[in-house]
Amino acid sequence: MPELPEVETIVRGLRPYLEGAGMGTFRLLFPPLLRRAPGVALAAFEGKKVTTVKRRGKMILVECEGGRTLVFHLKMTGQILIERPEAPADKHVRLIVPLVGRDRELRFRDIRKFGFLCCLGPSGSSQVPELDALGPEPLEIDFRSFARLFQGRRGRIKSLLLDQRTIAGIGNIYANEILFRAWIHPLTPAASLAEGELKILWKSMRAILRLAISRKGSSIRDYTDPNGDPGDFQVLHKVYGREGGKCPRCKEAIRRIKVNGRSTFYCPHCQKKV
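The chain above was modelled as a monomer; its predicted structure follows.
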């Protein structure tokens, strides 16, 4: 699933094409993509100009005139691509939106069909539970607020980093990389972390996410930016997907365990279990 760095890269790639453009007639090729909300339909967006494109957690928000917003969630294999109208669309394209005045169209492509689109009226995000429940943004939260997220929490630190209600946008790839950089074992109870360890974790989180954004994210399977270009942060992964490989710090073999059903990679020497 695209995580914060990938979604942020997509948003930055969409802005030059979408902001200021008008939306043409929507072609919904896979009706289940659309989560229907009472009183809000795709037709309400046709002819409206896009004012802002932004990210919240792992979701893309396209804000339009009249206070209406399109919310895209890519889920496992969703892609948002910008194409010329004459370019052929393959069988996995689920939505096409002409961009008036741009000679381009937005295409939502999704092989596994888990992604969704929701149309919001001026009332806001209350119609999208995934949006309402999100915790703070990891690149915006200050250290003191970050530390409070984990005070008294008995859950394992990796599980909490993945919990979108605790902090938004971090997924399995970056939770692994953040914990390795912070020298913290993924099974460590959050409440057991001292202030100094939390400070290192906070700094590691910011550093990893910013570096991943600068490399346009990690392309492991389906992810590309809106122009179809992959990211290359995967070449910098220290532990994720590297079971049996040598730790870049100590040369110990990277191990893999399951945490809440997710493959978790760590160095048993650098990230000692508490």
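The CA atoms of residues 80 and 140 lie 25 Å apart.
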